[in-house]
């Protein structure tokens, strides 16, 4: 009997230890196999939707000053960054050839005027002769024959025509003289507007050849010290947001690398219709106007633009990572929410692969604000349907849904070692 007791007592103790450790062991193994999640809090705060891009600072207007005539540059009277006034002399082209043309055309005009005077004198003489012949004819037909009378009449008509030719030659000579005088005036390169010389492309002594193409001598930017434009390209997917911002007169903030500590402000001046397609990406030019009273913004600078689309204050918001999270395995999801993962029901807000028609795509777009977030309840995850609103690069507004500030949402699976 004692020998049996000696065997049964240790066996019973062993069985008791196994039974006592079975529950904790199972719980430990389940804990080892169950995923551990990273979480983030639902918060209350502000949201601002912005479209970020880069642009180039340019003058409001760039006036290119060229030359209509050819010749060597005798002198320059304006340099880089110099402020000039309208009709101010900027450069001088050698005028000798053009002055000689003026003298030649003046002499030609004087010759043509003398021809007019000579034609007028001959015409007057022919008229007098014709009058005498007609008077004699009245006294008697035998005093002058019909042939002689015709000579007087047609001589007068011929001289009248010669006088018209001489007068036309005067007008032609006068036009040539005006053309030569204009060319002579074009040797003075004048500023067409008030502004700053932002570029000079000619040096003293250089020869212009305007007969081939109009040479560019200066670029003058009017009102550069008051206002500049920033030219940006906006993707077609975001141009609708820019249109809404322009209608609401939303501000634009930007910085430049030359003054990183300075925040500049502007407004949307123009959304141009001249689209550009690069590698199947369509962009539209957008022009932003900004004040430049301190002249810190120089042409050619790169501006980092932020278009303010919309702002919301003190709203319920969730991290964007919570909206992107998708449970990796349905066995850790509450049974009622498993159809969301098993393909029976597509997640609201996610694009469906079978959407093909325009009406279906439109309907899907209307539903894109219906999303799901996940919270942990015990060992399982529970889906919470929410309706989203404004979104920025970090948070998204919650318009409707069973969420409260401070509540923890699952945003990912932890890759670290699970707790023991």
Provide structural commentary:
- The protein is an alpha+beta fold and 420 residues long.
- Among the domains are: 35-47 and 316-413, no CATH class; 95-186.
- 33% of the residues lie in helices and 35% in strands.
- The chain has 6 helices and 20 strands.
- The strands form 4 sheets. The protein has a 6-stranded antiparallel barrel with strand order 2-11-15-13-12-16. Strands 3-10-8-5 form a 4-stranded antiparallel beta sheet, with no helix packed on it. Strands 7-6-4-9 form a 4-stranded antiparallel beta sheet.
- Helix 2 (96-139) packs antiparallel against helix 3.
- The chain starts with a helix and ends in a 7-residue tail after the last strand.
Give a short synopsis of this structure.
By secondary structure, the chain is an alpha+beta fold.
Terminal-residue CA separation:
45 Å
Overall geometry comes to: elongated
What proportion of the residues form beta strands (DSSP E)? 35-45%
Put simply, the count of helices is: 6
Q: Helicity, in percent?
A: 25-40%
Mean pLDDT: 85
Radius of gyration: 46 Å
Which sequence of SSEs, written as H and E, runs from N to C? HEEEEEEHHEEEEEHEEEEEHHEEEE
SSE-based structural type? alpha+beta
What about the largest sheet? 6 strands, antiparallel, barrel
How many β-strand runs? Answer: 20
* Side-by-side strand order of the widest sheet: 2-11-15-13-12-16
Spans where pLDDT lies below 50 across 5 or more residues:
344-349
């Amino acid at each position: 009997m004692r020998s049996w007791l000696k065997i049964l007592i240790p066996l019973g103790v062993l069985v008791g230890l196994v039974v006592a450790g079975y529950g904790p062991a199972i719980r430990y193994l389940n804990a080892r196999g169950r995923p551990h999640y990273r979480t983030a809090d639902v918060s209350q705060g502000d949201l601002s939707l912005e479209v970020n891009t880069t642009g180039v600072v340019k003058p409001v207007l760039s006036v290119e000053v060229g030359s209509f005539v050819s010749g060597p540059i005798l002198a320059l009277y304006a340099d880089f960054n110099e402020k000039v006034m309208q009709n101010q002399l900027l450069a001088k082209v050698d005028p000798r050839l053009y002055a000689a043309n003026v003298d030649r055309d003046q002499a030609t005009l004087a010759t043509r005027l003398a021809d007019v005077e000579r034609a007028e004198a001959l015409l007057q003489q022919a008229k007098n002769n014709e009058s005498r012949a007609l008077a004699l004819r009245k006294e008697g037909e035998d005093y002058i024959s019909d042939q002689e009378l015709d000579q007087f009449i047609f001589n007068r008509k011929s001289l009248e025509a010669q006088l018209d030719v001489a007068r036309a030659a005067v007008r032609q000579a006068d036009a040539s003289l005006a053309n030569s005088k204009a060319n002579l005036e074009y040797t003075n390169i004048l500023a067409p507007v008030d502004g700053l010389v932002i570029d000079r492309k000619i040096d003293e002594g250089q020869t212009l050849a305007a007969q081939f193409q109009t040479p560019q001598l200066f670029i003058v930017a009017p009102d550069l010290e008051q206002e500049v434009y920033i030219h940006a390209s906006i993707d077609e997917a975001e141009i609708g947001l820019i249109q809404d911002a322009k209608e609401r007169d939303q501000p634009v903030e930007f910085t430049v690398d030359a003054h990183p500590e300075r925040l500049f402000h502007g407004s949307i001046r123009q959304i141009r219709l001249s689209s550009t397609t690069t590698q199947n990406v369509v962009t539209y030019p957008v022009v932003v106007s900004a004040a430049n009273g301190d002249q810190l913004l120089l042409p050619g600078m790169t501006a980092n633009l932020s278009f303010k689309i919309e702002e919301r204050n003190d709203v319920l918001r969730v991290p964007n990572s919570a909206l992107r999270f998708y449970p990796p395995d349905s066995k850790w999801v509450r049974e009622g929410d498993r159809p969301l993962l098993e393909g029976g029901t597509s997640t609201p807000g996610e694009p469906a692969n079978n959407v093909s028609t325009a009406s279906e795509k439109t309907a899907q777009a209307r539903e894109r604000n219906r999303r799901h977030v996940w919270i942990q309840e015990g060992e399982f995850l529970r889906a919470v349907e929410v309706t989203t609103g404004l979104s920025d690069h970090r948070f998204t507004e919650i318009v409707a849904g069973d969420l409260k500030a401070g509540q923890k949402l699952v945003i990912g699976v932890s890759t670290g070692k699970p707790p023991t």
